[in-house]
Predict the structure of Monosaccharide ABC transporter ATP-binding protein, CUT2 family.
Amino acid sequence: MAKEVMLHAVGIDKQFGPTHAVDHVSLDFNKGEIHALIGENGSGKSTFTNMLTGIISIGEGTFELDGERIEPKNQVDANHHGAAVIVQEQGTLDGLTVAENMFLGDEDQFISGGIKNTGAMIKKAQELLDSYGLDYIKAVDPIENYNFEDRKLVEIVKSTWFGPKVLVVDETTTALSQNGRAELFTVMNKVREDNRTVIFISHDMAEVLAMSDTISILRDGEFIKTVSAKDVTEDELKTLMVGRQMSEHYYREDYEGSMAGDVAISMKDVSVPNQLEDVSLDLHKGEILGIGGLSECGMHEVGKALFGASFERSGEVTLADGTSVKDINTAINHSIAYASKDRDNESLLTADTIQDNITLPSLRKMGLPLSKRRQKQFANKYAKEMSVKMVNTDQFVSALSGGNKQKVVLARWLGAESDILLLDSPTRGIDIKVKADIYALLDEMRKQGKAILVISEEIMELIGMCDRILVMKDHKINGELERSRELTEQDLIALMV
Ligand SMILES: Nc1ncnc2c1ncn2[C@@H]1O[C@H](COP(=O)(O)OP(=O)(O)OP(=O)(O)O)[C@@H](O)[C@H]1O
């Protein structure tokens, strides 16, 4: 039976100054399907869907949703027309409760006689959270009480409870752990079963093939092709995205024992309330140490604790020379790099330029007086090394695509020539081509004797890149696995649950 079209996009176009982000794209999305939109970083995926969901205005072209032409003025307006989005970065606002975030712009339903019935709003929000199995999240709490993943789960409820006709899931999976992903996939499948539509943006080709019915490819803002998921392989998709054949190599290929040297940094009996309980570990020079686990296991706090960025930390973090790392300043002064999972809030100065972001921890090294020309050369060198897709380094970081922001974070620490790298979700939102480059870079740094910690939700990344993997459960280390050809996803999962 021929499928009915849910969303008919004709000649959709957007330019940002010299950047032609979306170039006259015409595309149909059917009812009852999960339709993946794939392409390299900066290929225009988010710009296309942001026009549909009211985050930015439409440059040119028309969207017809279920027979109605829509031109959303903002996200709330888009919701009212049946288009919703779960964004790549933080989609909830500080300073509001969970309930207020869920009904932001839609509070009218709780107002009668000019008075807002807050109790009714909290009750409805809690009922919705409970119905998604998220009863541990309290509608009445300030949203700041919750971590990045929980806030994403709130956003999933916020974006779907009213049954949107089209739901955009923009590179959300990599912000979630295994159980968070399962929750998201349940929601996506439900949208499909209800004969509505999901537009699914992801850089994980295995996930794209497993989840979607149809796949459309964008390259440099242009529409390339739509294929049926059952007729295409991962390699064919990669070739379509990149425009040339990709090499087979991806992860490290050596399995002959680790080259690990002396301990570079260690943590002993470190506890952080509700996050870590008596965690001890050694990170050696010349090794990549992986940390994995399910959400709430505390793994993201390990990076923060080592970087001196935890609140209320007890226990010791010590460098090889005996220095105790108690705060961020000490960490930076001793050449420690840290990339947070919450990129926009904790890793980047989004209101500053690419140059400022890249040079920040290296300014002292450049010496006084600070030469503008040197700073520019420095930023250019490392932005180029990470293939940041940009107009130039004077561009604001806020104007970059998600994956390109992540490249700026990595360019900064590459430039700082840090000896210890603490990388939380280092390839989050990064396309396959750059991912391969980052893996090669990590391997090179390891060979140079740098100590590298990789905290990751990507089990294959941990298996493929790490010399050792510590698996966490309930805020403690639950087991250690050595690098081996025989290691499987199941070995890690068994220690996570
Ligand atoms: N507000 C903006 N101002 C200037 N340029 C922008 C802006 N938003 C996006 N761009 C540019 O438009 C292009 C497309 O970006 P977009 O975010 O749509 O890519 P994407 O395919 O979603 O990438 P990613 O996979 O990294 O999320 C990029 O070159 C980006 O730098």
Summary: The chain has a mean pLDDT of 91. The first strand starts at residue 5 and ends at 16. The two ends are 42 Å apart (CA to CA). The CA atoms of residues 258 and 467 lie 6 Å apart.
